[in-house]
Structures are given as structure tokens and as C-alpha cells.
Recover the amino acids of this structure.
């Protein structure tokens, strides 16, 4: 069994048994909005995209069969076995993209063997409908099509060419909203099920008369029903909503319900396999659940969990080198960067999550690992208004047997105000026994791991050891020095330096005006330096041996962090709407690396990830990447990283694509936290599930590379210019030439239309093509032409390489 | 999928006394058996041989009790006046006792009449003991003398007149037949050797000595007098080892636990304290209803016997250990277990299809109701009498959970008079508890919001509301007082701490940047203060 899931610009094919992604169907150039099984062939599927094309795929082998060009952005796709050769799509009514009005259009797919077909036979069926693909559905055996507008149900009968509309009142007496949210039709009877904003499900019957229609109401959901689906035999109706409960209603015995509660995030789509054996729900937290028809979960496909927002810092779990950040509500997720896979979710809050909008929930706002990864400290808070603030500080010990973190100590109300920073000292030999937290209540507290006072306590627990304050100023940040002999706490404008051994205040440093926003000690040979970023756009470096200011520079640092394995420090500076990155050593005046206009908006989360294998790069610009990767999260929640040239070459070589990306490469889970909508398709039943887009490293213009290369390594401008223009010509001409050749060949031969499509897809990636197969698939190609083609390829290659070098 | 997560009941640290292994050991006694004697119980002594009877000296009688009996197995009544210090010989055959009439009597444990009467003292004899060779008796008297008597021919062997006040305590060495120690109201302890005519060692306790104890090794001597218990090292010539001042009235008696690891002292302040003999820290404390005069421990610490001034003898027996109980239970259950054993021993064969039972999650009743979103019922369950009384943290946790779900108002509303008064009584009992206050204040505000319209309709509710109000007013006063105290402490700490001169960050002169913050007075809160805040 296969499960199709639209994910960004590709359709992913999963195996329902192993949960593995078998392959991704790539080809669309914009967000895919719908995936649909071809009614006449169970092994083929349509996908539609905002790029205005509908593509037909053989999803078992992952081959693009045909592309139908429509010319308008497509928001949804429908098909029925009764309407052979016709698909129904949702397009904007006007060609301008901002149009709010959509129509349902029937498209007669031309029956020619060409690879790229322009479908011109369009006829509007319904106009002024919702763009939501769940708000339209085919009725019994394709006899009618139903579409829901906010308060209106429109049924179009194909036989009579007539449409009926049924209206609901705007609000019923209890204040619930009657707005339609989704629609589905019974497969064998004249019955339409509609889901509503107030959680009601209405079953409409007898709607082939304008007046005598009836409906019955089912009410279990407490908020909007987001997806409805009948099983193929029509015996059961499945519904889901924000409560994250899958409800199975017996058709005609609606009082009997089965529930599958606590599935995770809000259910966004439900789909049912054609034999009715499997259900599938997609969730708002980037998860697909596969459910057996006996309402039992059989498999879970989980990507990087998408939270509402990231409150914790990006962190690296020192043992597994997994990236740790907010995941499901009240959880921390551990995500393996190497394997691009979610390892597990750690339940921090340990409370039943109530799925209700507007409810103030506990959120994990802060977390910190100690250097050896044996302790994790988390802070959760609820109700951020000062008097009612609920705070919990939890300390988790790593359990070697369970290979997970186990709650050791819960400190409720550790501070009276919100906690602003949390840090462990960097003890290299393992046993961390201290934690420092700073809070808006004007204090910082040191927590100490104390041996049990009495024998009946199970083990050591944490308790407060010291409470410090300075002139009732509010501490904003704290940092331990590399050898943990000093603690720097930033109290607004003043940096205080304490010794944790005796809790004496050693010295104060300050650089008014402007409060200290971020503090960071240097590492290794630079451990005598303390860096601080202030709100008055200054980056200061103090020498702790002389207690004097070493240097100061004017930059608006939004984030300052140190590489744990080297002396390097990274500063993200917000400048004119975008963020610049500077990598430097505190002792040297010249930055090692700088990157202007990295991304728009502020960068507030970043982390150095230690490499498994040190690189031996001697390239000066990329030397700072030898020990660690730098990952950062932009304001639009894209997770980006830096890679070196060598790695990039490796990457491009492995993917066999001549990608000339700029320095900021998109990681495989780039845009995981984006807001794209995706579609999912069960192999036999059509469905739409919203999942995170997972985008492969996409090609971007080589122009950036050209522009960002340091001027002194570039050849002369005239040489470059001609080369550049030439390159443009080649890259544009190449496919069209090939296509032309192909088309000519097709017209002359007119054979094996289906395999043509296959061949076409391969032509676009000739490196893959085994030589024997190419010979039989394209017999019409003359030897000279093939040679010419290869020469072109080689030319292209070498030229690109030249550009790279 | 993920199962229901039950309501998190926070575990609060237990206030007051910490539970240690020690307290568990000493708490493992049954409720005391109390026996009324004829007068103040001045001495208790266990027979060193089985069946470990003990002699209780009270007023003019000495009762012998069996270890587990509540009735005396034997009574010696031939005293003309108050008897003192009934002690067994090391073979358990003979018993000696002093008397107010200055006569020392020696009894056979099986007989009634005194075997010997030692007459020679001129005043009451408070101290009697057998020497370790069993043939001599040590006595100490209020005439400031102590004597050695020979049992076979009832002759006075030796008299020592060194003390200058009443002799009220004395012990003989169990290792050397010639050594004995006496303690007197002249504040001194004297170690005598029968082979010489005078004391070999004198130790000043500093207070009238009430009780003496020799360690089994006899290297250490413990003396009790005044409020002090002092330990002396005899091998170092009576050097003081430690002085314990844990009682607030005169310490009257001392005892050593069977393994010699713990020292017990009883006092007129009605407490028995248990000390660790390595650290000399108090590890446990017993309370008794009256001033304690005498104390004894049965062998293996099987029972603690305490005699008090109000003539009550209190006997605490150790609970039978759980292993013994378990083995007993096993034996009883065995036959019935065998009947059903074949079911449990069924081993599935290779081709059997095993149908595994779904594991049902056990949930508390309130959790079941919360799972079904029955908020009012859940609150009712949490307010059941035993939860409310015994485990208020459960009730508070449920209220907090309801508040988190935003349904607390629904759960509180719609209550009748009885339920409302139950709620209010819970609030009155727990509102001022610092652990619960944040949650309960929210709930109390909601209750007042909901039910303010019905004030005046029910006398019960009105009374409770008034009670709540007065409670809050009192609490406010307390808090105010506490804040005042805290302020005073702050001032004291601040003035007692030396002002720290910090090295000034000399940035300003070097690079022309504006002068940093001046380093005047810093208050680094020290550890002590942080404890105050904690």
C-alpha cells in the first residue's frame, strides 16, 4: 500500500507498512495543492499545483507520465469514474492572482501522447465557490457535485444540468456559527454530510428538490469540523477537528460512535483507502497517522514538529547531537540533523493537553543542557500576566537504561517573575552540580544538586543554593566562563562578575548607555574575554584580566554565540531590515567571515552543531566551519545552515544536479516551519492532508555566486560577462532544443505513447539513463545527435565547473 | 495513541521532622502499655538472662514483670519504707535493693523473704549493685558513703567516705570485679578500686550526678546530671569527650541500646532522647506524658520501659518484623494457592495464537471524571471527606487542573447550600496554607463572584463567609508582621556585612568612553539570607 502526500513542490510516496518515504515525485515548480488518484487507473495519480499544471504520475515507479498545462493557478482537483477524461479543478475566476473568487472548471484532458499538453477545453461548472478543496465533493457515483460556500450549499446535477442551492441562517440561537467548513458525499446514497464551524455535522437528504430537502444534525465536536469522510461502503462517517479526536459515526445509527482520542495536533484531513481497511489523518503538527479500520493506530509518520512558535533556544543534545527545540505543545522535540528524522518528543509539562482555542496552556519557554548531556533544565510558564504567572523549573536527569531524560526535580514558582536566562556551567569532567537562573523579579538564583539528606530519598535533588541581586536591577542574561570559575550576570547596564565558589561579587563592568542584552565568554585561548551586546547597538569586549574594555564596535547584535569547539564567535547583527553574520575571534580585530544580508528580519535562534568529523579545510573563508556547523532560524521560521564548497560539491555530485547554490544552502528540512499547505493522497482514495513541506535543495541562480565571490578572485569583467551571457543561452536553449528534437521524432514515429512520456522524463536527467535503455527508448536518435547531446552536456558541465572554480 | 495523562499531584516537601532510618526504627513500636504503680517509678532493671524479666522499683515495692506480661509475675513487698534500685545479679538469681530505712535487702528471685539484710548505712540507700564476681554488693547511701558487702557472710568489706554529698548513682565494672564508679550530688564522679582504700579517679561533672552508665567496653563513662549528659574517656584518665545539652530539665536516667550504637537519656522534661554514639547527635526523640525517672531497654531493643513520676510505667513493645509476618502469611496461603496453581502454570504452545488483553490504565476517580470532562463531578470527588481532610493537595490539584482547563467556574457554580458550605469549609481550612494559597485564592474569588447574590439566604453559608473574612484579616496581619521582621533582618544583615570595595573597571580613562557605574555599596545576599527567603 502506498500513501501519497503532497509536500511543498513534490509529492512524497510513503509505504503504509514501513512508514518510509519511498520516493518523491518532483517536477512542479510551485506549491502542490491537490493529489488525486486517476479513477481509471489505480496506479496513476494526478497532482495539481499553483504553477498552473496538472501532472499525471506513475507513483509506484515515481515517473512523470504527462503534464497538462492549464495556465491558471489550481487550488483543487476532483475526478470521478463517471466522467472519463475530464477532471474538475478550482481556479480563480479572474486571471489576476489576487482574485478572491474561485470557480470549478471542468477540463477535458486531450488524449494525445505528448509529454506536455496544453488543455484548452475548459468549461465552468460552478462559479463563486470556496478555494478550500475540502468544501467541494462529488456525489453518488459522480451524478452531482456539491460545493459549500460560507452559508450556502450548492448541488449541481450533471444529468439535469441544474444546480440547487440551500441556505442556512447566519447564526442559530445559541451563537454557534453555521458556516460550512467541509463537505463529503455518501458513495451509494443521496446523502451529503457537511461540517460546520460550531462543530455540528449535518446530513442532507432529499436535495433533488429545491424545497423539500431535509437535514439531520449530529453534534459531538466542540469546535469546527475540519474534515469529513465516508468509508467506501458508506457504512461509517469519519470526522475530525481541532480536538484531535477521530470520531467514527455509524451511518444511520448515528448514536453509536467510536472515538480515537489524543492523536496529536489538530486533525486537518482524513482519508480512507479504497478497500476501507486503512484510515489516515494528517495533523497540524506535521504528522500523518495511519489507522486501521478497527480504530487502532498502526503507524505514525512524523516530521519535524511544527509548533506555533519557537520559545526555547535551538540546542544540541550533547549525547546524540540532536537538535532540540519546542515541538508539540508542552514537549521538546529531539530531531536528528544527520538522519533528518524526529527521534522523540520529551513530555515536559506532563499534563493532559486540552484542545481548545483561547485556553492559556503551559508552554516550555526555556531549556538548557549541561555540557555532558546528563542534565536538562526546562522552564514552563502559563499566564504571562505578572500576578498570576505560573512557573515551573524542572530538572531532568539522563537515564542510561531508558536512554531518555527522567524528571528529577520540579521546582514550582522558582522565581516571582519570568525567567530570563538559564545556564549550566561548562564542566568538562562530567558532573554538573549547578544551574543559574535569572529572573525579572530582580534576582538570580543558583541551584545546586544536593545529595539526599536522608536515606529514604531516592537520589540527589536540586535545591536553591544562592540568591543574588544587584541594586534591584533586572538581570537579563547570564553566562559561565569556559572553566566555570566565573559567572557573568548582566543587570541591565551593568555586567557583574561573580565567583561561583564563594558567591562573591568580583567586579562590575559597564558600558552605558544601553542595557546588556547578551553575554558570552570567549573559549580556549580567548577565555579571558567577555563579550556583551547592548541595546544601544554596541558590541563590547572586556578583558577580564585587566577588567578593562578591550574593544567596542557599533553593531546591533541580536544574537551572540560561541562555538564550543573553537575560539570563534558568531554575531548576528540586525541592520536595515536584514541580518548580517560576523564570525570572529575575540582576540583578533578582523572578522574571519562576514555575510551581509543573510536573511530578512532578526535572527534570534542559532546554534553551533559540532561536526562528527573535523574538516581539514584550509580555505580561509570557510575555516570557521571546520569544527562545527552553524544552524540558524530566521524570522520566517526557516532553518538554514552554512556549508563549505567541498561539501556543496559533494552534495551536488550526489544529487546529480548542477545546482549552483549560494553559500546559504537549503537543508533538507529547510522551510519545515513554513506555512505552505500540502496535500496528501492515499493511493486509492483521494484526500488532502496538510503536512509540512519538505523541500530538496533547490537550484538557485548562479548569479548569486558570481556576485558574492570576492572580487579579487574573479577574472576580468569582460571575460565573465561573455561567459555569463553564454551560459544563459545554453541553459535556456538546451531543453527546448531537446524537446524540439524529441517532438520531431515523435511525430515521425508515433509509437508507444506511454513509454514516450517515460523517456521524456529521463531525458531531462540523462546522467541516470543506462546506455542500453537509451538505445531502445530512443531508437530514432541518430548517433550524431546523441553525440551532439552528450557534447552539450559535457560543455555544460565543464562550463559550470569553470564558474565554480 | 497517547494515553490520558492523569492530574499531576505535586509532592510537597514534608515540613518539620525528617523521616530517617533512625526514626523508622524507633517508631516501630506498638502503642505503649501503661501500668499504674503505687508511687513514682524510681528504677527499672532487666534481668540479664532469659526470660528477661524486669524489676520495677516503685514506692515500697519491687514488681517483677515478664517481658510480655502486663501483670507482675512476682512482687517483693518486705520494705518498711520506699525501696530503691532493685537490681538483678548477672545470673538473674538474686535481686538487691536499697531502702529509705538504710537497710539493703537481698532477695532470691523465686522467694519472698529477704535472704540477707545488710545494715550499716545510716541513711537511705539509693544505690545498690552486684560486682562482676557475683559475691559482693556495692551500695551507696545518702550518708555520703559507699560500701562493699560480702554476700556469703553478709559482712561489710570496705567503706569509702570520699563524697561530700548524697550518692545517688553508681555502677560496677562488668570486666573487673574490683572497679566501680559512683556519682554524687557533690558534682563528682569517683572511680574506686576495691584493692585500694581510696578512689583512683575523680571527675567533676559540674552538676549533681543523677545517673551513670559504663559502655560495654568500659572505656567510656556516661554521666547525667543537671541538664547535661557527659561522656568521659576513662582510658585517658577521665578526659571529657563530649557534653550533650539536649534536655531542658534534669536528666535522670541513661540507657544503652543493645548493640551499643545508641544512647538513650530520659529527663524530667518528659522526653527520651536517642543519641548516635559515634556523632553524639540526637537521632530520635520520644515524648512521654510525665517526668521520667527511670528507663530501661530490653535485650535486642525488644521493648522500651519507662517509669514516670506520676507512678505510671510505660512499656513499648517492638512490632513484629515484616519478614516474620510474610513467612507466616505464606504458610497460611499455601494450600489454596496449590488449588489454582495449574492455571498460572499454563504455558502457551508454539502454534497458539495469543490474544493479549489490552492493558487498562488505572485512573483515580476524579481523573476518570476529568477525562470525561465531568468537571462538577470531578470537583465533588475531590471534595470527598477523606481526600479533603487527609490529602488536601489532591483537592487543590484538581482545582488547579480545572482552572487550567478554564472550567473552574462551571464546576463551582450551581451548588446547593450543603455543597457550598463544604467548599467554604475546605477554603477556610486551607486558604492560608502557602502551598495552596495561589490556587485557592482564585477559587475563592470565583465563589464570591458566583454566590454573592445569595448572601443572606443561608445562615450556614453566611457564618462561614464571616469566618473566612476574619481568617483573611488575621492572615493579612501575620503577613504584615512577617514583612516587618524581614525588614529588620535585612537591615541587620546589611549592617553586619563588611562593605566590599570592588576593583573598578577602569575603562573610562583609557579610551575616553563615559565613566561606568560607580561601585559603592553592594549587598551580596549571603547564603544565610537566601535561606531566610527560601
Amino acid at each position: 500500500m502506498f500513501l501519497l502526500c503532497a509536500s511543498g513542490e513534490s509529492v512524497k510516496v510513503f509505504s503504509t507498512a514501513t512508514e518510509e518515504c519511498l520516493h518523491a515525485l518532483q517536477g512542479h515548480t510551485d506549491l502542490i495543492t491537490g493529489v488525486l488518484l486517476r479513477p481509471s487507473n489505480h496506479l496513476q495519480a494526478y497532482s495539481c499545483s499553483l504553477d498552473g499544471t496538472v501532472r499525471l504520475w506513475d507513483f509506484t515507479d515515481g515517473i512523470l507520465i504527462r503534464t497538462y498545462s492549464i495556465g491558471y493557478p489550481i487550488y483543487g482537483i476532483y475526478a470521478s469514474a463517471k466522467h472519463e477524461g475530464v477532471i474538475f479543478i478550482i481556479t480563480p475566476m479572474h486571471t489576476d492572482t489576487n482574485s478572491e473568487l474561485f470557480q470549478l472548471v471542468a477540463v477535458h484532458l486531450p488524449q494525445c501522447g505528448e509529454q506536455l499538453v496544453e488543455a484548452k477545453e475548459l468549461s465552468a461548472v460552478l462559479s463563486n465557490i470556496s478555494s478550500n478543496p475540502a468544501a467541494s465533493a462529488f456525489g453518488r457515483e459522480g451524478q452531482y457535485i456539491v460545493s459549500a460556500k460560507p452559508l450556502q450549499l450548492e448541488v449541481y446535477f450533471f444529468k439535469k444540468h441544474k444546480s440547487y442551492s440551500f441556505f442556512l441562517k447566519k447564526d442559530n440561537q445559541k451563537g454557534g456559527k453555521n458556516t460550512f467548513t467541509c463537505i463529503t458525499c455518501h458513495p451509494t446514497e443521496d446523502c451529503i454530510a457537511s461540517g460546520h464551524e460550531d462543530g455540528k455535522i449535518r446530513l442532507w437528504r432529499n436535495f433533488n428538490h429545491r424545497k423539500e430537502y431535509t437535514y439531520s444534525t449530529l453534534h459531538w465536536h466542540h469546535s469546527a469540523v475540519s474534515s469529513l469522510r465516508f468509508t467506501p461502503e458508506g457504512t461509517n462517517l469519519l470526522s475530525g477537528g481541532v480536538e484531535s479526536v477521530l470520531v467514527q459515526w455509524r451511518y444511520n445509527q448515528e448514536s453509536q460512535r467510536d472515538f480515537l482520542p489524543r492523536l496529536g495536533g489538530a486533525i486537518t484531513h482524513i482519508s480512507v483507502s479504497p478497500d476501507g481497511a486503512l484510515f489516515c489523518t494528517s495533523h497540524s503538527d506535521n504528522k500523518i497517522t495511519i489507522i486501521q479500520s478497527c480504530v487502532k493506530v498502526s503507524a505514525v509518520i512524523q516530521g519535524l514538529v511544527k509548533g506555533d512558535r519557537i520559545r526555547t533556544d535551538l540546542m544540541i543534545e550533547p549525547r546524540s547531537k540532536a537538535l532540540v527545540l519546542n515541538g508539540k505543545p508542552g514537549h521538546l522535540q529531539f530531531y536528528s540533523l544527520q538522519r533528518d528524522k524526529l527521534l522523540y518528543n520529551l513530555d515536559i509539562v506532563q499534563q493532559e493537553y486540552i484542545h481548545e482555542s483561547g485556553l492559556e496552556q503551559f508552554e516550555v519557554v526555556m531549556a538548557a543542557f549541561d555540557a555532558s548531556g546528563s542534565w536538562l533544565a526546562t522552564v514552563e510558564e502559563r499566564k504571562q500576566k505578572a500576578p498570576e504567572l505560573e512557573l515551573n523549573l524542572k530538572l531532568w536527569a539522563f537515564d542510561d537504561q531508558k536512554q531518555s531524560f527522567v524528571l528529577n526535580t520540579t521546582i514550582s514558582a522558582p522565581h516571582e517573575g519570568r525567567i530570563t536566562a538559564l545556564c549550566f556551567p561548562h564542566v568538562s569532567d562530567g558532573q554538573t552540580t549547578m544551574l543559574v537562573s535569572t529572573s525579572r523579579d530582580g534576582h538570580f538564583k543558583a541551584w545546586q544538586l544536593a545529595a539526599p539528606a536522608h536515606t529514604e530519598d531516592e537520589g540527589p535533588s536540586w535545591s536553591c543554593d544562592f540568591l543574588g541581586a544587584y541594586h534591584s536591577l533586572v538581570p537579563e542574561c547570564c553566562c559561565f566562563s569556559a572553566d566555570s570559575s566565573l559567572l557573568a550576570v548582566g543587570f541591565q547596564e551593568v555586567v557583574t562578575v561573580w565567583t561561583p565558589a564563594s558567591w562573591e561579587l568580583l567586579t562590575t563592568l559597564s558600558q552605558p548607555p544601553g542595557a546588556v542584552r547578551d553575554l558570552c565568554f570567549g573559549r580556549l585561548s580567548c577565555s579571558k574575554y567577555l563579550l556583551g551586546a547592548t541595546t544601544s547597538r554596541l558590541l563590547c569586549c572586556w578583558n577580564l584580566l585587566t577588567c578593562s574594555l578591550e574593544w567596542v564596535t557599533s553593531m546591533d547584535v541580536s544574537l551572540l554565540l560561541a562555538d564550543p569547539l573553537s575560539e570563534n564567535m558568531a554575531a548576528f547583527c540586525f541592520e536595515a531590515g536584514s541580518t548580517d553574520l560576523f564570525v570572529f575571534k575575540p582576540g583578533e580585530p578582523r572578522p574571519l567571515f562576514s555575510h551581509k544580508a543573510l536573511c530578512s528580519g532578526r535572527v534570534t535562534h542559532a546554534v553551533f552543531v559540532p561536526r562528527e568529523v573535523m574538516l581539514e579545510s584550509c580555505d580561509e573563508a570557510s575555516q570557521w566551519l571546520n569544527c562545527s556547523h552553524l544552524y540558524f532560524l530566521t524570522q520566517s521560521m526557516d532553518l538554514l545552515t552554512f556549508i563549505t564548497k567541498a561539501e556543496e560539491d559533494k552534495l551536488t555530485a550526489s544529487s546529480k544536479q548542477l545546482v549552483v547554490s549560494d553559500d546559504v544552502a537549503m537543508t533538507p528540512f529547510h522551510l519545515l516551519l513554513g506555512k505552505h499547505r500540502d496535500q496528501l493522497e492515499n493511493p486509492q482514495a483521494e484526500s488532502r492532508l496538510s503536512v509540512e513541506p519538505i523541500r530538496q535543495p533547490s537550484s538557485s541562480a548562479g548569479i548569486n555566486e558570481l556576485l558574492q565571490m570576492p572580487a579579487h578572485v574573479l577574472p576580468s569583467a569582460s571575460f565573465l560577462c561573455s561567459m555569463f551571457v553564454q551560459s544563459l543561452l545554453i541553459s535556456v536553449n538546451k531543453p527546448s532544443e531537446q524537446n524540439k528534437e524529441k517532438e520531431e521524432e515523435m511525430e515521425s514515429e508515433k509509437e508507444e505513447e506511454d513509454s514516450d512520456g517515460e523517456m521524456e522524463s529521463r531525458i531531462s536527467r540523462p546522467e541516470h539513463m543506462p546506455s542500453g535503455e537509451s538505445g531502445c527508448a530512443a531508437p530514432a536518435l541518430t548517433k550524431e545527435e546523441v553525440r551532439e547531446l552528450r557534447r552539450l552536456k559535457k560543455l555544460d558541465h565543464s562550463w559550470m565547473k569553470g564558474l565554480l572554480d | 495513541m497517547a494515553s490520558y495523562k492523569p492530574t499531576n499531584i505535586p509532592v510537597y516537601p514534608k515540613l518539620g521532622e525528617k523521616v530517617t532510618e533512625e526514626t523508622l526504627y524507633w517508631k516501630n513500636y506498638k502503642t505503649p502499655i501503661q501500668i499504674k504503680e503505687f508511687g513514682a517509678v524510681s528504677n527499672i532493671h532487666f534481668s540479664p538472662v532469659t526470660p528477661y524479666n524486669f524489676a520495677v522499683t516503685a514506692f515500697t515495692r519491687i514488681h517483677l514483670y515478664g517481658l510480655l506480661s502486663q501483670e507482675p509475675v512476682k512482687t517483693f513487698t518486705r520494705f518498711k519504707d520506699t525501696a530503691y534500685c532493685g537490681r538483678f545479679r548477672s545470673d538473674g538469681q538474686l535481686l538487691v535493693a536499697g531502702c529509705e530505712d538504710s537497710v539493703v535487702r537481698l532477695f532470691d528471685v523465686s522467694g519472698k523473704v529477704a535472704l540477707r539484710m545488710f545494715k550499716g548505712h545510716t541513711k537511705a540507700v539509693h544505690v545498690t549493685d552486684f560486682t562482676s564476681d557475683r559475691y559482693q554488693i556495692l551500695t551507696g547511701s545518702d550518708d555520703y558513703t559507699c560500701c562493699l558487702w560480702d554476700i556469703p557472710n553478709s559482712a561489710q568489706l570496705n567503706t569509702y567516705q570520699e563524697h561530700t554529698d548524697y550518692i545517688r548513682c553508681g555502677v560496677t565494672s562488668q570486666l573487673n570485679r574490683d572497679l566501680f564508679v559512683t556519682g554524687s550530688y557533690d558534682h563528682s564522679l569517683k572511680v574506686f578500686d576495691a584493692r585500694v582504700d581510696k578512689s583512683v579517679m575523680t571527675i567533676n561533672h559540674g552538676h549533681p550526678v543523677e545517673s551513670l552508665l559504663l559502655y560495654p567496653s568500659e572505656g567510656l563513662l556516661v554521666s547525667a546530671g543537671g541538664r547535661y549528659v557527659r561522656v568521659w574517656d576513662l582510658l585517658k584518665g577521665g578526659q571529657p569527650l563530649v557534653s550533650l545539652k539536649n534536655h531542658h530539665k534534669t536528666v535522670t536516667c541513661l540507657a544503652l541500646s543493645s548493640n551499643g550504637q545508641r544512647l538513650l537519656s530520659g529527663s524530667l522534661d518528659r522526653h527520651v532522647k536517642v543519641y548516635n554514639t559515634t556523632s553524639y547527635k540526637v537521632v530520635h526523640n520520644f515524648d512521654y506524658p510525665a517526668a521520667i525517672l527511670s528507663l530501661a531497654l530490653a535485650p535486642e531493643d525488644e521493648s522500651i520501659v519507662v517509669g514516670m513520676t506520676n507512678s505510671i510505667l510505660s512499656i513499648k513493645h517492638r512490632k513484629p518484623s515484616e519478614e516474620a509476618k510474610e513467612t507466616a502469611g505464606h504458610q497460611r496461603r499455601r494450600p489454596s494457592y496449590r488449588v489454582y496453581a495449574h492455571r498460572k502454570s499454563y504455558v502457551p504452545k508454539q502454534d497458539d495464537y495469543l490474544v493479549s488483553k489490552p492493558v487498562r490504565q488505572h485512573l483515580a476517580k476524579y481523573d476518570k471524571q476529568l477525562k470525561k470532562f465531568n468537571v462538577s463531578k470531578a470537583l465533588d470527588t475531590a471534595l470527598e471527606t477523606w481526600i479533603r481532610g487527609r490529602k488536601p493537595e489532591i483537592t487543590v490539584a484538581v482545582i488547579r487542573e480545572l482552572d487550567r482547563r478554564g472550567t473552574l467556574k462551571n464546576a463551582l457554580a450551581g451548588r446547593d447550600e450543603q455543597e457550598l458550605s463544604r467548599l467554604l469549609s475546605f477554603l477556610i481550612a486551607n486558604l492560608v496554607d502557602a502551598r495552596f494559597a495561589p490556587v485557592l485564592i482564585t477559587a475563592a474569588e470565583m465563589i464570591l463572584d458566583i454566590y454573592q447574590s445569595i448572601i443572606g439566604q443561608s445562615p450556614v453559608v453566611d457564618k462561614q463567609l464571616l469566618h473566612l473574612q476574619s481568617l483573611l484579616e488575621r492572615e493579612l496581619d501575620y503577613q504584615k508582621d512577617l514583612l516587618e521582621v524581614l525588614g529588620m533582618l535585612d537591615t541587620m544583615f546589611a549592617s553586619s556585612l563588611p562593605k566590599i570595595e570592588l576593583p573598578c573597571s577602569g575603562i573610562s580613562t583609557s579610551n575616553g568612553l563615559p565613566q561606568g557605574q560607580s561601585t559603592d555599596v553592594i549587598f551580596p545576599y549571603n547564603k544565610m539570607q537566601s535561606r531566610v527567603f527560601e
Remarks:
- The CA atoms of residues 631 and 641 of chain A lie 4 Å apart.
- DSSP finds six helices and 57 strands in chain A.
- The first strand of chain A starts at residue 2 and ends at 7.
- Chain A touches chain B through 54 residues (CB under 8 Å).
